[in-house]
Amino acid sequence: MDLTHILQKMNIRESLTPSDSCSAIAVLTHICERFKAKEERVLILKETAEFFTLAPLDWLFPQFNTDLREAYLALSDSFTGHAGLPVCDTDGGTLPSKSYEDIPTKVQAVSTSLLALCLRIQASVENRSNPHVKSLAQALAPSLCIFSITHLQEQPWTSDASRNCALQLLTSVAGMKGSRSVQDLLSGDEDKKGVFGPILDTLQPELTKECWKRNQAVKHVFSWMLVQIGRPWLTQYLEKVFPPALLISDDYRTENKVLGVHCLHHIVLNVPAADLRQYNRAQVLYHALFNHLYTSETSLMQVVLPCLIDLMGVIENPPAHAGLPRKPNRFDDVLRLVLTYMEMEHKPDLRRVYASNLVLLIERMGVVIIRHMKRLDRVIVGYLEVSDAPEEKTRLSILDALQKTLEIAWPRMERRMGSLAQSLLRFLVDVSSESVTRQLKEQLMSKASHCLLLLNHCSEGKLQSLLREVDNTCVPDSVLMCIQQITTAAP
User: Fold this and answer.
1) Handedness of CA 13, 52, 152, 176 (dihedral sign)
2) How far apart (Å, rounded) are the C-alpha atoms in residues 122 and 131?
3) What is the DSSP letter of 288?
4) Following DSSP, what letter does each residue of 99-133 receive, concatenated?
5) Sign of the torsion formed by the C-alpha atoms of 32, 38, 41 and 43
6) Would you write out the chain's pLDDT as a tens digit for each of its 491 residues?
7) How many C-beta neighbours within 10 Å does residue 279 have?
8) Residue 218, CB half-sphere, CA atoms under 13 Å: how many?
9) Cβ(314)–Cβ(272) under 8 Å?
10) Helix and strand counts by DSSP (H, E) for the chain
C-alpha cells in the first residue's frame, strides 16, 4: 500500500509536493480533528502509523517552521491524552482497578503510532536530511517520555503487552534523541542536553500539594525518573525534586511514605553534602525522617533507617574528626530510640529490619558507641535468645552487630565479658539442637565462635581460662569443638 492510498483512506487529498510544508500540516491537522471528534480512534491510530511509515522524509519534515512543530505536538498530545488515566477525586488518591480496564489496549494502539513517528524522526536525524528535525525531537521527547514511563511499570493500568509497547517507545525516543540509553536521554551529557529538566517543568503543576493525588501515575513517573539520574547531574535539579519527594514521604498512606523516602534516599546518595546542607535542607529532611522512626510499619522502617543513617553522615562529622570531647549528636538520638524499640519489639519482620540496620549504625558511630553499651548489651543478649527460623536473619545480623562492637569498642568489653560469653555459649548450645539446615547452623556457630574469640582478645586471654573449666561431659560435640578453637587459639 502506497502513501496515496493511505491518504485516500484517511479522506485527505493534499498534494505530495516534497517542499510543500502546508501539506504535512494539513494532514496532521486533519488527523487531529478526526481524533478529537471521537471517530474510530483505533482505526485512525492504525492509519496514522501507516502514514508515518510510508511518507517520504522530506515531505514529513520539510523546511521547518513553528506551525509544523505545533502540529506534531498537538497530534502527539491528542494521542497520549487518549490513553491518559482517569482523574482521581478521592482523598486516598486511588481508583478501583476496573477504572483502568481499557487503558492497556489504548496504550498499545497509541504506542504503535508514536513509535512509527519516532523511527522516522530518527531516520531523518541520522540521514541529516533536515538539521531542524532535532528541534522537533527535543520538543516531543518530554511528553513521550512521560507517556512511556506512565505505562512502563507494573501497575493496575498496565499489562504485559502495554508495558512492552511502552518500553519500545521509550527506547525509540532515546534513539530519536541520539542517546545511548534512557539514562543518557534523561540526564544528558557534555554534548546533549537531557530531557529531565523539561519533564520536571511539565510535571510541576501535578506535583503540588493540591494536585499530586489526582493522577495516580504521577508519583510513580517522578520516582522512576529520579532514580535514573545520578551524580553529578542530579545536583542541578535539586530545587525541583526535593519538595515533591518530601511531600510524598509526608503522606498518611504507608505506600506513599515508602515511595517518598526511597526518592529522598536517592537524593541523599547522589547530591553533594554541601548542597544538601544549603538552605537547611538536610535539617528539614532529618526531622521528617526521624518522625518516621515512631512507626510500626516494617516496609517503611526498611527504607527510613538506611536513609537516615546516610543522611546523618552528611549532617554530622565522622567520630574520628569530631574533636575532643566528643559531644552527643544525632547519631546518639537515633541509636537511643532504635534500641528502645528493639527491646520491646516482638514482630519478627520488624526485629529483622532493626537488627540488619544496627550493624551499619554501629559502624558509622565508631568508638562513641561506648555511650550506649549498657542498653546495647541487653539488646544483643535478648535477640540472641529468640530464634527467627528458618532463615535466622535476625540472629545473623545481631552477631554481626556484636562482632562490629567488639572490634570498635574493645577497650570497654572486658567488663561485659561475663554476660556476653554466657549468652554466646547458651546460643551455641541452642543452635546445636535446633532443626535448621547444616549450612545455616555452621554459619551461626562460626559467627558466634568468632565473637567469643574477639571477646577473649578483649579480655587479654581471661576468657580462655574460664572456658577451660567447662565440663566437657555436658557439652554437645559441636559446641565443644567451638570452645576448643578458642582455648587453643594464640592469646
Assistant:
1) negative
2) 12
3) H
4) GGTTHHHHHHHHHHHHHHHHHHHHHHHHHTS-TTH
5) negative
6) 566 777 777 766 544 444 444 578 888 888 888 888 776 888 889 889 988 988 888 888 887 678 888 999 999 999 999 998 988 877 667 788 888 899 999 999 999 999 999 999 999 888 876 677 888 899 999 999 999 999 999 999 999 999 999 999 999 999 998 888 999 999 987 667 889 999 999 999 999 988 898 888 999 999 999 999 998 999 999 999 999 999 999 999 999 999 999 999 999 999 999 999 999 999 999 999 999 999 899 999 999 999 999 999 999 887 656 566 778 889 999 999 999 999 999 999 999 999 999 999 999 988 889 899 999 999 999 999 998 888 899 999 999 999 999 999 888 888 888 888 889 988 888 888 877 788 998 899 899 999 988 988 888 878 777 777 666 666 677 777 877 777 776 65
7) 12
8) 25
9) no
10) 24, 0
At 387, which amino acid appears? S
Q: What is the spatial distance between Cα 69 and Cα 91, in angstroms, rounded to a whole number?
A: 39
Q: Which residue has the cell 535539617?
A: 283
Coil, helix or strand at residue 193: strand
Cell numbers representing residue 57 in the block: 522524509
Per the CB < 8 A criterion, the answer to whether 421 and 455 are in contact is yes
Nearest to 103 by CA among 163, 29, 157, 49: 157
Residue 53: how many other CB atoms lie within 10 Å: 16
Residues in the chain: 491
Query: Cell numbers of 226, please?
Result: 529520579
The residue behind cell 529538566 is 197
DSSP letter, residue 210: T
Q: One-letter amino acid identity for 371?
A: R
Q: Cα angle vertex 113, ends 110, 116, to 5°? A: 145
Burial class (CB in 10 A: 0-12, 13-18, 19+), 265: buried
Cβ-contact 313, 365 below 8 angstroms: no
> How far apart (Å, rounded) are the C-alpha atoms in residues 62 and 301?
57
Residue 208 Cα distances to 202, 240, 247, 319, 481, angstroms: 12, 11, 8, 39, 63
HSE value, Cβ hemisphere, 13 Å, CA-based, for 202: 18
